[in-house]
Amino acid sequence: DAKTTQPNSMESNEEEPVHLPCNHSTISGTDYIHWYRQLPSQGPEYVIHGLTSNVNNRMASLAIAEDRKSSTLILHRATLRDAAVYYCIPTGANNLFFGTGTRLTVIP
Amino acid sequence: EPEVTQTPSHQVTQMGQEVILRCVPISNHLYFYWYRQILGQKVEFLVSFYNNEISEKSEIFDDQFSVERPDGSNFTLKIRSTKLEDSAMYFCASKMSSTNEKLFFGSGTQLSVL
To answer: Which of A9, A16, B47, B102 could share a disulfide with A103, CB 3.0–4.6 Å?
Structure first.
């Protein structure tokens, strides 16, 4: 699996957009880029995933760089409930291997 | 939305005792996983299971660990002789297929070994 680099922590004001970056320069051509998050005292939760094109769902948007060496998870309007650790996981395998992620703090 | 269910939510045991952590994956899912998270650390892969056999396991998943799908609904993780360092949150997960399907996680069992 590709090595990833994410900021340890980020802050956002409530109701503001948040852009969570991830570098995965060693990604292979068939790896999908998955994003999961872990709310306090809960199990990880799927957010979104994509291969090459940008993706949108009800939770977030995923912007993938043209060279696929980086991606950005976009929360359009952060709420207090979005405070969590966000994990970027490029993988072509059946398993997910979690890094340390980005801890997002949402300020009321 | 369907859920992965784990029981118990908390388990306290004495060092050297056997524990069984139970999971009910989502009913039409075929791939099953156990992960663990030691307090303050990252989520670690333990084992994946498909078609009634282990597909992949990590270095953590040594001879003290075993998994079983005893019937059509349950998926269990057994630790034969617990050690203090086995204290962690254990997460079960499942997904429908081997393609890039999303993984559904349970809310975990907090295991405390005294």
So the answer is: A9
pLDDT tens digits for A87-100? 999 988 888 999 99
Q: How far apart are CA A108 and CA A96, in angstroms?
A: 32
Q: Which residues of A51-76 are buried (b: 16+ CB within 10 A; e: fewer)?
A: eeeebeeeebbbbbeeebebbbbebe
- Spell out which chain A residues touch chain B, with contact meaning CB-CB distance below 8 angstroms: 32, 34, 36, 38, 42-46, 49, 51, 87, 94-101
C-alpha B31/C-alpha B93 separation (Å) is 8
Is residue B47 within 8 A of residue B61, CB to CB? The reply is yes
pLDDT of residue A37: 98
**Quick one: tokens of B51?**
């078609």
pLDDT at A28: 87
Angstrom distance (rounded) from CA B36 to CA B47: 10
For testing contact with chain B, the best of A94, A97, A98 (most B CBs within 10 A): A94
**Any bridge partners for residue A13, and if so which?**
A107
| Cα distance between residue A57 and residue A64, in whole Å | 15
The H or E element that residue B50 is part of is strand B44-50
Q: pLDDT for B35-86, tens place per residue?
A: 999 999 999 999 999 999 999 999 999 999 999 998 878 999 999 999 999 9
